[in-house]
Amino acid sequence: MSISKRHFTSFISEVKHANDNLGLAYPMIPFFFYLQHCKIKPFSLEKPEMQTAFKEWTVVVDALTQGNQIIILRKGGIREGKAGFQVASDTFWLFPTQFHQQRESVIESAQLRYDEIKRAPEEESVISVSALARVEKHYELEHWEQISRLKGHHIWREDVVRERFEWGQKKALFLMIVRTYALAFPIELPMKQKYGGCRSWVELEPAMPGQDALTPILDDSQFATEVEAIQHIVTG
Questions:
Q1: For residues 119 and 134, what is the distance between their CA atoms, to the nearest angstrom?
Q2: According to CATH, where is 2.30.130.30 located in the chain?
Q3: Would you list the DSSP string of 179-208?
Q4: pLDDT exceeds 50 at position 19
Q5: pLDDT digits (tens, 9 = 90+) for 127-183
Q6: Which range among 21-25, 40-44, 138-142, 151-155 shows the weakest confidence by mean pLDDT?
Q7: Cβ pair 35, 76 in contact under 8 A
Q8: What is the CATH number of domain 41-235?
């Protein structure tokens, strides 16, 4: 996706005009004009009252929202019972968690990124929700060879993934291929006790506002290319 110099100049002029005359918050103006000039198709939630969120490490949520990966690997939390991990919803908010050992569990480039984005302890009483994900495909992977070939498509260290695979009575991992969409601006929510613990899914409070302009992180062609590569690995 590109924007011409003429359109960019027009874009800056319109941003300044809107900011001066409408009195709107400056950070919000560029987003909507950016959508207009770059012709990105927004995504509308079919269920604007949706509250379901998926808990994932902050650094992994960042990788998803930066377009650095489109997969989530999950074994299942202790509180998810004998059935293990289940895909509770095919559309969900991404809930970034502050698990402090996550830095040592990802590759070096992601460690450096974590150092940039980690939150101070006093900020952990607030959750910043900035993206939504939709599950395109999901699989239960029972062969380590499938999982090891996913190297390069995610930021976890291989030994960490292997440990997850081996853990428990059944050697397997769940793989979700997700398409991630960015909110126009983050929504900050208070951290609640019920969000804690080893569970993957939570219901957010208070009610999440309806969103009518979520922008895909990757365009259709980029996303399709990544999906094809991962499906080729998984299905052989």
A1: 26
A2: 41-235
A3: EEEEEEEEEEEE--GGG-SS-SEEE-SSPP
A4: no
A5: 999 999 999 999 999 999 999 999 999 999 999 999 999 998 889 999 999 999 999
A6: 21-25
A7: no
A8: 2.30.130.30
Residue 8 one-letter amino acid: F
The two three-digit tokens of residue 179, written as one number:
């398409």
Q: Is 61 exposed, middle or buried (0-12, 13-18, 19+ CB in 10 A)?
A: buried
Report the predicted TM-score, pTM, of the whole model to 2 decimal places. Answer: 0.77
CA angle 178, 213, 133 (to 5 degrees): 15
CA 19 vs CA 12, 62, 156: distances in Å: 11, 29, 42
- Looking up tokens 């299942």 gives 76
Q: In one letter, which amino acid is 225?
A: T
Output the pLDDT for position 46.
52
Q: 206: cis peptide before it, omega within 30°?
A: yes
